[in-house]
Amino acid sequence: MTSWSPSAVTGILLLVLSCTGFAALCAVHGLPMADALVYRAEGAAVVDGRDLYGFTVTRWELPATYPPFAALLFVPTTWLPLAALKGAFLAGNVAFLVLLLHLSCRLAGLPSRAAPLCAAAACALWLEPVFQTVLFGQINLALACLVLWDLTRPPGSVGKGFAVGVAAGIKLTPAFFIAYLLVTGRVREAATAVVAFAGTVLLGALVLPAASVEFWTRRVFETGRVGKAWIVDNQSLQGLAARVLHVPEPGLAWTLPAVVVAAMGLWAARRAGAGARGLLVAAGAALLVSPISWSHHWVWCVPLIVVLVGEGSPRLAVVVAVVFTARTLWLVPHEGSADLHLAWWQQGLAAPYAVLGVGLLASASLLRSPQPRPFPNRGLRPRAPGLVAASRLVLKRRTD
């Protein structure tokens, strides 16, 4: 008979209580999981042979925005009743959160035990990017796990880089990690990622030829289709520039800084090497230069916090955790076009993740980097009457 230590029982109970609180909150306000409904509609479009990019779903009229390959992966979502699908996304995202914490410990060189992992997951569930990911039924945690699992495998592992390419084939932003592999001298892994990415494109083209032509020649360039770039939901450089300049389309005012940040990020990642710091610098740069990085895309805050703890910087880890928990972006005026008329002193509150990302990127570029540690082997909205209600407003504002 298996015996449970008191610490393990405590960790599991904390996670259960945290999930119960989350579920109760959703039960009271409703669990939208709007993105999960989009994925389901994409899978249904594949099954029924309908136009993949010609529909919108939910009352927020959300369209499909991912490559055709992603739609193929979403076909199984059509096999479940809606209530079961939401339950599967909820349980799956909590499991991915625990896995992400485990992989983050591996990245940071910290021991990974069940009790601390469950306790950490109980707390991490309330980080704003994680909370929104679970609430919307997003796949951010799954993609972060895919990339982190691949890049923390020992050098020379069979097929290393393959999962990065697959992640890029599902959602384009992880393609930045291919450039990261190149600048850190891992040409073979970068080539594997490119081949895997090309494979996802080819598979999508074979199964969905018309949708593939439409996406890769037209939809991929329509960033406005994803949502309005100037709202506080967008924590990329483009969103920051638009709000600071009070214009919906900042143009060169964001593209030129984005090029600089991308170059600086890759240089800092190369300088940091193949360890944890270089990988997180690349993740931060990718989120900053992406035209749209919704707040829930910033789930990379989880490995960042863990790595800071592993590097012996617990106070900085607490500061980062506070930034990603405080939800200051929802405290500034953000109804209608109010995002474009914020006072100067509100800009930092409206863009906490972008400001933090730029700051950490600058420090990684200017400060001396520690010797990177090799990865261990495997054996070893109203202004918030409520979190769920605010999330509904997030969805509405993206498409109004």
UniProtKB/TrEMBL annotation:
Family matches, as InterPro entries: GT87
Subcellular localization: Cell membrane
The name this protein goes by in its record: Putative transferase
Similarity section: Belongs to the glycosyltransferase 87 family.
Superkingdom of this protein's organism: Bacteria
GO molecular function, one term: hexosyltransferase activity
Taxonomic placement: Bacteria, Bacillati, Actinomycetota, Actinomycetes, Kitasatosporales
Membrane-protein topology: Multi-pass membrane protein
Main localization of the protein described in the UniProt heading: membrane
Cellular component, GO annotation: plasma membrane
Keywords: Cell membrane, Membrane, Transferase, Transmembrane, Transmembrane helix
Biological source species: Streptomyces aurantiacus JA 4570
Transmembrane domains' residue ranges: 83-105, 117-149, 161-183, 190-211, 251-269, 276-294, 344-367
